[in-house]
Amino acid sequence: MRRRAFAVLTTICACIVLSACADFTLVDVTATPNVAALPSLPPIGFNHRYGDSPVASADGFQLERQLFAEHEFWEVAIRADPVASGYVSLGNKTAVKAARHAATDVLLVIATEDRSTIEGLLAYRSDPGQQQYCAALLDHIRADGYDAIRSAQVLVFFTESDQHAKLSWSKKSGYTFAVYDNNLRGTALVPGATITPLPAPN
Predict the structure, then answer these.
(1) Count of beta carbons in the 10 Å neighbourhood of residue 53
(2) pTM flag (> 0.70)
(3) CA 176, 163, 136, 84: dihedral to nearest 10 degrees?
C-alpha cells in the first residue's frame, strides 16, 4: 500500500513539474542599443576610500598608517588630478613616480572621531599653528613625489559632519586657512592646558 501511494505521489509531482515547464519558451535576446554610450565602472583593484586612483589610494593608505603609528588617528583620502594619470600598475615604480609627478592638483581629506586626535589638533593654541600642521601634511605629500602641483587643499573633519577647517594653497596665492567651528569653544572637547599638540608627520 505504501509503495502504491508513493508511486502515485511521484507521478503527480512529475506531472506538475512537466506541466509547469510547458509555460516557458526560449526566445532570442536582443542586444541593448547604444551599449557603447553607457558609462563604465572604473578599474578595480584599489580601495576607493583612500583615493581616486590606484596611486592616490596607495598613498592615502600609507599616510593613514604612518599617522596611526604616531598615534594620530586620522582617516585619510587623497584626490589627485588628473585622475587618469594615477591608473598605473603599482608594481611599476617608474610609472608610479611619473603618475605622482603628473598630478597638478591635490585634495587631501583627513577626518577623525578620536578625542585625543581632536584635542591634539586644537592644542595648537592659534589658527596659524593648526595651519602649520596642515601644511606639514601637504609637504609630506609633496615629498612623496607630488612635486609639480599647482594647487592643493587640506580639508579637516571632526566626525563625518563637522568640517573643522580648510587649508588652501596655490603657487600664485600661497596659503590661506579658515576654521569653521570656532575651534569647538564652549564644548567638552576643548583641550586642557596639559594637552600637547600633534607632532607634524615625519
Answers:
(1) 25
(2) yes
(3) -90
